[in-house]
């Protein structure tokens, strides 16, 4: 079979360390010859050196891969927003990653901050290309006492329909339960669009039970009864907030995987741990690569290697079950998971 | 002394039940003659009967009170947004309730869903009159495949500065620690205004330590280390989300009090439990009136009756410490708290 062609952006901080383990596990499950990786030096280091975030030529090259793997980008020396807008969100928007997929599962053996979390296994389908993330809005009279700053959340029937449809599909192949999360009682322009769309698409999914929660109420259930959720569909910003909370509830950001998926297949999808670059522990082999390894499993599933995806997940699950309080280096965790796949 | 003049909006669902207990406790601590209450029939019942949400004449009457007490409004028969926009938010905006004050304290004896919550005692200062709550935005081509719906978050230097200043003041009289929560790396137009304002006002508060967290990260800390917070200042929507989560972490929405405060004193402030009208348990004496009683304590503090406020809080604290799993009616809880004030 033709090898899987991956564009890899290790990024900054702990990014390179966790990506190395993700690729180690990928090699172990596919066999080295079955993967071709090309590394791209993008992120804070490059920005400091050249002022570049994502040159057009690099973006076009990235477009040619079967999928992308990203570690984490950013360091405290880069002004807030520069790499987010110029690199991470630029990739999500340019490659039309409209399904930002974030599973939350409490694996056996993993400690939750909740006293009685129950059997937690849900996935958040976060819209990835519009909402409050468009950068629309602006500033009038910046820096004066008369300043006005606006942020415009842009929501289209086109954008909402495709992500809602994807979420219904996933609910159908899971436990048949979809929860729309929004704030329709206040953000009623966008809220009505989301609710109308869920109602309309739901006509085609009579086997899927549909619930609605305001985003504030959803955060309550995420700590009092997270096991109630199967698939959550929500907008870009609510999804950002809920998935960090969901990660915390299911053992922390060190385990949370994500996929920025272009489900139409018109550009490569990108897989990345939900965590950031954690500059405070960078280069010390302290980071947990599990989130990246699970992101690799999502990548495998996305490119149709479903068996291999399940094997990686099973290896992670087995490792987590025996992990306990042991302190291991980033590489040791990667080695242990890879060894289970040999 | 002249009696305290209160406008009371019991509202719908459990609203009237919990408000009755709040007023019972108020009578107990002040003595009946010291309070004059006028009840207003506003909410779902009135809307169903007359189509009115908040007639102008009623609003002008409400403007004349020393403070307002609200139970909860809404029932499933009212379309989402009608009472929120037409009554609750209308009052908050018309009476310029720019400090939406929401304390979170884990009282001794109260169970948290967290396994190890620690010593939680913080207050969220939520901006109450702008941000994504203005209703700005609109819909183009509603109901068609080409629909575009926008929500505009409006943030002004005027609005941000006054709430940030209030939050610094509160931090100074508490443990001297202020955390700004926003999403500056994505919502950078508004984010920069908030950050610049906190930096500028902070110059006058050298004794207050200032932190910043993205809203997604803040939700993580609210479940992994809520004791780290003292005062959080944030925008209207982030504040809505964080305070429901904070309520859940500190024993649930049945205990969460709030004040919609016009700190400039140009219109009456309004105090209300964070919970809603809970139509499923309405009229059954099942609702916990504690959130309303604690809102009454906030009301007392606001009108300068600080000793009485502290006495109500102490009575609640004592009741909570002995509460355990006992099942009591709404009135029994109110009676027990009132009895401690006799
Ligand atoms: C870094 C930031 C732009 C990003 C987001 O807000 O989407 C991150 O928080 C995430 O969830 O992937
Ligand atoms: C009912 C709703 C409009 C309100 C809000 O969003 O502010 C409520 O959730 C609250 O927190 O008081």
Descriptive terms for the model:
Isopropylmalate Dehydrogenase; 41% helix; two-stranded antiparallel ribbon; 2 domains; binds 3-isopropylmalic acid; homodimer
Strand content range of chain A:
15-25%
How many domains make up the coordinates of chain A? 2
Multimeric status of the protein: homodimer
Work out the helicity level of chain A. 40-55%
What is the radius of gyration of chain A?
20 Å
Largest interface, with counts of residues having CB < 8 Å to the other chain, equals: A-B, 66 and 66 residues
Please report the number of helical segments of chain A.
11
CATH fold name of the largest domain in chain A: Isopropylmalate Dehydrogenase
CATH class of the largest domain in chain A: Alpha Beta
Secondary-structure element string of chain A:
EHEHHEHEEEEHEHEHEHEEHHH
Mean pLDDT of chain A: 97
Structure classification of chain A: alpha/beta
Distance between the termini of chain A: 20 Å
What layout of secondary structure does this protein have?
2 copies of one chain form a homodimer.
Chain A (H helix, E strand, L loop, with lengths): L3 E8 L3 H16 L4 E5 L4 H7 L5 H7 L4 E6 L9 H13 L4 E7 L15 E7 L9 E4 L7 E9 H16 L4 E6 L5 H15 L6 E6 H10 L6 E4 L1 H14 L7 E5 L7 E5 L16 H13 L3 H18 L6 H10 L3
Parallel strand pairs in A: 1-2, 1-3, 3-12, 5-10, 8-9, 8-10
Antiparallel strand pairs in A: 4-5, 4-11, 6-7, 11-12
Bound molecules: 3-isopropylmalic acid (2 copies).
